[in-house]
Design a protein that fits this description.
It contains 10 helices and 2 strands. The protein has a two-stranded antiparallel sheet with strand order 1-2. A hairpin with a 3-residue loop joins strand 1 and strand 2. The protein starts with a helix and ends with a helix. One of its GO terms (cellular component) is plasma membrane. It is found in: Cell membrane.
Length: about 300
């Protein structure tokens, strides 16, 4: 990433990198806000029964009143209620921060990968404009300008493909664990939320937790869709520019880009499933299926 920020040759490339970096910043802020908001409702609503002095719980729950989770400290929980509660909230904050930090880091990397593909697309679609902005290309004569520009596009396209491949290699196993835990968490939360003696207070808590998991899942699938879309659009960009003004020798270079762009880059869940928007609905359906099975055997 540092090399890409230092190696841009025209102002438009820098603007593209900056625009996607700002997009990554917006995703980070929005995702962090959503996860902290919905993820915090589950533990913080647990203190309400203790405050109003009522035992608002269900027969299905085994946790002490006023604690977000079932814990065993081998001490008197009534006597040390607030220290234990603070510890519960502190561990919840650590867990949420870990999830937000890891997911937003992936989001920033994906946005940078999309920026690399967008730079290639820009140079292919605005060939004349690119040649005028690039001082090295402007000094060349005749078809050499087109040829060098296409060579640069091939190099940048290889960099983008290599970056996308690294993302897939590094995160495919992590996505497998992450999606698996999301399916399990949503199924169990839905099971608790539909227990026969559950009251509205606990239903809201579980609903907030499920929404946080859905947001978590949607962001992961949306990022995978972004990689697919931006890598796939390079193919159409090859024939949107002024390629017809170049020589047959230069046009042959475009065939290399078009051939590789026919197969879009993807992020997978343990090499089993491709992360995309359609896979979001597929995972939700799987969670619903597991919930139905658990409910039938409860």
């Amino acid at each position: 990433m540092q090399r890409d920020w230092q190696s841009w040759t025209i102002q438009s490339e820098f603007e593209i990198l900056y625009r996607f970096a700002e997009s990554g910043k917006s995703i980070t802020i929005g995702y962090a806000g959503g996860m902290y908001a919905f993820g915090s409702l589950f533990p913080f609503l647990a203190i309400i029964p203790k405050i109003i002095g009522r035992n608002i719980t269900s027969d299905y729950s085994t946790r002490p009143v006023g604690f977000p989770y079932h814990v065993e400290y081998y001490i008197d929980l009534e006597k040390y209620y607030y220290p234990v509660l603070i510890h519960n909230y502190f561990t919840t904050a650590i867990r949420l921060t870990t999830i937000v930090a890891s997911d937003t880091y992936v989001a920033i990397l994906v946005q940078h990968c999309c920026a690399l593909f967008s730079i290639v697309r820009y140079r292919l679609e605005y060939i004349r404009k690119t040649i005028k902005q690039d001082k090295e290309l402007a000094l060349l004569k005749g078809d050499n300008k087109f040829y060098k520009n296409f060579v640069y596009c091939i190099q940048k396209h290889k960099d983008a493909l290599r970056f996308a491949r690294c993302l897939e290699i590094v995160y495919t196993k992590a996505f497998f664990v992450e999606i698996g835990l999301i399916i399990l968490a949503m199924s169990l939360s839905a099971l608790q939320a539909t227990s026969g003696t559950l009251n509205p207070h606990l239903a809201i808590r579980h609903a907030a937790y499920i929404i946080a998991q859905l947001l978590h899942l949607y962001i992961a699938c949306w990022l995978g869709q972004q990689v697919i879309d931006h890598s796939d659009r390079v193919y159409t960009s090859t024939y949107r520019g002024e390629w017809y003004e170049s020589s047959p020798k230069s046009r042959k270079l475009l065939n290399m880009i078009m051939l590789r762009s026919t197969l879009p880059c993807t992020l997978t869940v343990g090499k089993i499933m491709i992360l995309s928007l359609p896979s979001f609905s597929a995972v939700v359906r799987v969670s619903a299926s597991y919930f139905t099975v658990l409910q039938s055997v409860r």
